[in-house]
Design goal:
Belongs to the TonB-dependent receptor family. It is found in: Cell outer membrane. Its main location: membrane. With 805 residues, this protein is mainly beta. The chain has 2 domains: 81 residues, Immunoglobulins (Immunoglobulin-like); 687 residues, Maltoporin, Chain A (Beta Barrel). 5% of the residues lie in helices and 55% in strands. The strands form 9 sheets. It has a 22-stranded antiparallel beta barrel. The protein has a 5-stranded mixed sheet with strand order 9-14-15-12-13, with helices on one face. A hairpin with a 2-residue loop joins strand 5 and strand 6. The longest helix is centred in the first third of the chain and has 16 residues. The chain is globular, with a radius of gyration of 28 Å.
């Protein structure tokens, strides 16, 4: 019935369109220097008897409908570009006019996050609590994407170590998989762990959109705590750029990025690749770095090097197809290949040390990406489909025990061995093959220039097969199966009123999930227990909804607010576990549910002489039930397991201040403080209380500050050159490792941390070669994240970036 209604609607629309000698004008506006889309540019079509005005979309597209046949003037204007007028003629049902505009001047950026104010403001106007990071300057530094995110208000990136370690993201109090990561609007889980924010260099990224709390419907996933959307460079201009960098702890990085487009046919080719390597042999010390110099003697605390933490990853992505042609804005077929191998230094905490355990992972993906504005009058369509396969192997077959001395324990005589036969349990060569099919469809219909309706659909299917030749043949022959299906449909309505000063978005989402598994289990706890296959099949059906609104009080002051009933479905790794990450499966996890509220204001472009100020503040509330959190389990805290935490109430705020003097000196300060407390006693998988009532949420930093100073100078050493210098301070207040009533002596509190980074970048006069130098954690302070896992100390890095074309 729904299909018949849609068909009837399209037939009626086409019939109405053909009744008069009217046509449509559509096309794309881009900047002539790099062919990037011109966002929020005003396009006016007029003659003596007709006049109509629209604004370009994020992709630079525009469209006019019901334009009588005849001759017109098409005028293009923007605060970022010189006004341009061209004469056109409308004599057919669909007239395609693509054009380029010249920038009015160099767009300066406000802070080290390199936020383009005009782009940022247009995205913020939709009413969501959002920050935008552009990488125009950061791509020249020897810096990872995660470090850029960690300097943003309301964001805390928590890594388990150095380059290549697992990372979690906290957005306004919610963390883990509650925060979804996207690449060009596609969930990052399809790209595999070797293609992650840890490995993608900023030079391949155009901008990062950080939505805190309520997430727009076009990111059609179950992002309950917020979303980070990585917008990759998709320039259709011919270009080729490469960079190499190296530094402390055996770190070497390289990347290359290029594209080509034939202007006559629209044929487009894009490609990028990266290589990352790090020994991660930095010093660690503290209460978890203790050794016995002889059997039976007391522990001695030492400073030790991480000796088994090498990380290596490489990957490439290529796309071929057509862009900005009459029948498609984009039709690209792509392929991605990446692989990673990593030694594993420790268990869930630093108390368990490994010397031989490691993992290897390979990912391959193929995808189809299509979009067309005005596929029929006022109807926009975009479709993305992909198939990916991740092959993950964990190798742990040697039982030798290691200590932080970097040698087997008791190595003066015979090495001690683990009774289980391997370092993390039974010997294993387990190989998991994870297959993902992902489709994302967005359909948008514009009733009028100020009203539109969208339907967004996400389908994700997951399956895993496992094989472990170290198991007894009879046991290994009992094949396990794990399957997962997520189906999310979102409906949204957008309206702008009062000359675009008031913008409103309403949305609703349907969440359907099915998960099934057949897993080996023993019928008892004794050695004579019978090995059986246990089947589990669970379905869930939930509904979420919300709204976002913003209003421009003046040209410089805007207020915004949003509210949402959000759902987050358990992820496949949380349900089925990941052996290489010491993560146990938990099949019975329930979906998270949260009522999220945001309210904020933004002051932009407050100018006094050569001084320019900006301010943004956001107050938030999260009322969450069944929050999924990861906790270490067992007496030795060697493994992780996920648990539903009963009822969490969070309230807090984040503030950001931007200042620049004469577009040469830039200062940014941001603060995020929240209070997250558990209002129900929660128990881990062993029945032990995890967090007693009214206590702060365990292992969650609740107060962070970041201060950044940057200076830009041109013609400083050579005419035509550019020199940038920055200094960054990150402060994290002390927080509880478990809770304020649990945990042993010296392990309860993770202390206050302060990290200082500095560096410079120098671009030579030809603007093709840039040299940068970065010094990180210059005072060599202890920096911790998850469960006192120490991050690298003082390090120095250099980078060369060369624009070939």
């Amino acid at each position: 019935m729904l299909v018949l209604r849609k068909c009837s609607f399209l037939i009626l629309l086409c019939s109405f369109f053909s009744m008069a000698q009217n046509g449509t004008i559509s096309g794309r506006i881009a900047f002539e220097d790099n062919n990037e889309p011109a966002f929020s540019v005003t396009v006016l079509v007029k003659n003596n008897s007709f006049k109509q005005q629209v604004v370009t979309s994020e992709n630079g597209n525009y469209s006019f409908s019901n334009v009588p046949y005849g001759k017109y003037t098409l005028q293009i204007s923007s605060i970022e570009a010189e006004t341009k007028s061209i004469e056109i003629s409308v004599s057919s049902s669909n007239t395609q006019i693509n054009n380029t505009i010249k920038r009015a001047g160099t767009l300066e950026l406000q802070d080290v996050s390199v936020v383009s104010k005009s782009t940022k403001k247009k995205i913020e106007e939709r009413g969501f609590a959002v920050n935008v990071i552009e990488t125009k300057n950061a791509e020249l530094q020897s810096i990872q994407t995660n470090q850029l995110l960690d300097r943003t208000a309301g964001v805390r990136v928590r890594q388990a170590g150095g380059l290549g370690s697992n990372a979690d993201y906290i957005l306004n109090g919610l963390s883990g998989n509650s925060v979804k990561i996207f690449i060009d609007g596609v969930p990052i889980r399809n790209f595999g762990p070797s293609f992650s924010l840890n490995s993608i260099p900023p030079s391949l990224i155009q901008r990062v959109e950080i939505y805190k709390g309520v997430v727009p419907a076009h990111l059609s996933d179950d992002a309950m705590g917020g979303a980070i959307n990585i917008v990759m460079k998709n320039s259709t201009a011919t270009n080729l750029t490469a960079s190499v960098s190296g530094g402390s702890f055996g770190t070497y990085l390289a990347d290359i990025n290029g594209s080509f487009r034939d202007e006559k046919t629209g044929f487009t080719v894009r490609g990028s690749g990266f290589f990352n390597y790090a020994d991660n042999d930095y010093d660690v010390w503290g209460r978890e770095v203790a050794v016995q110099l002889a059997p039976g003697t007391p522990d001695v605390y030492i400073t030790a090097k991480r000796f088994h933490d090498r990380y290596r990853s490489q990957g490439g992505r290529a796309e071929v197809g057509y862009t900005n042609v009459k029948w498609a804005d984009k039709l690209m077929i792509g392929a991605l290949f990446s692989n990673m191998d990593k030694q594993i230094q420790n268990g869930a905490t630093m108390e368990i040390v490994y010397g031989n355990r490691f993992t290897e992972q390979k990912t391959k993906m193929i995808n189809l990406d299509y979009s067309k504005r005005n596929i029929v009058d006022k109807l926009d369509v975009s479709v993305f489909g992909s198939f990916s396969e991740l092959n993950r192997k964990t190798v742990d077959t040697i039982a030798t025990q290691y200590s932080w001395l970097g040698h087997p324990t008791n190595y003066f005589n015979n090495p001690d061995v683990w009774a289980s036969g391997a370092e993390a349990g039974l010997p294993t060569l387990q190989e998991d093959i994870d297959k993902n099919i992902n489709t994302r469809t967005n359909i948008r219909y514009r009733f009028t220039p100020n009203n539109s309706f969208q339907i967004n659909h996400l389908l994700n299917t997951f399956s895993r097969t496992s094989d472990d030749p170290m198991l007894p043949p009879i046991e290994n022959a009992m094949m396990e199966e794990r399957k997962y299906m997520k189906n999310i449909i979102a409906f949204s309505y957008e309206n702008s009123a009062f000359n675009n000063r008031l913008r409103t978005t309403l949305f609703a989402k349907s969440y359907l999930m099915n998960r099934s598994s057949t897993i080996r289990n023993r019928s008892g706890n004794n050695s004579n227990s019978t090995l059986i296959l246990v089947t589990t099949d669970i379905n869930s059906d939930d509904l979420g909804y919300g709204a976002a609104i913003s209003f421009d009080v003046t040209k410089k002051l805007s207020i915004f607010g949003s509210a949402e009933k959000a759902i987050r479905l358990p992820e496949s790794g949380e349900l089925f576990g990941i052996v290489s990450e010491n993560l146990n499966g938990q099949l019975l996890l329930r979906p998270e549910k949260s009522n999220n509220y945001n309210f904020g204001l933004a002051l932009d472009n407050l100018t006094w002489k050569k001084h320019n100020f900006g301010f943004r503040g956001n107050v938030f509330i999260r009322d969450t039930k069944d929050l999924i959190m990861k906790f270490p389990v067992g007496n030795l805290e060697e493994f992780f397991s996920n648990t539903n935490v009963g009822k969490i109430y969070t309230e807090g705020f984040d503030l950001e201040l931007n200042y620049n003097y004469n577009k040469e000196i830039f200062f940014t300060a941001n603060t995020s403080i929240f209070d997250a407390r558990d209002y129900e006693v929660t128990y881990d998988t062993n029945g032990n209380p995890v967090s007693p009532t009214y206590q702060r949420l365990a292992n969650t930093p609740y107060s962070t500050m970041n201060y950044n100073l940057r200076t830009d100078h041109t013609d400083l050493f050579q005419k035509g050159s550019r020199f940038s210098f920055y200094y960054n301070l990150l402060y994290v207040h002390a927080f509880f490792r478990h809770s304020n009533t649990l945990g042993g002596f010296g392990k309860t509190v993770i202390p206050t941390q302060a990290s200082n980074d500095t560096g410079f970048a120098y671009t030579f006069p030809n603007r093709k070669l840039t040299l940068s130098f970065d010094a990180k954690n210059i005072f060599n302070r202890q920096i911790f994240d998850n469960y006192a896992l120490q991050k690298p100390g003082r390090g120095f890095y250099t980078k060369l970036t060369y624009t070939i074309l």
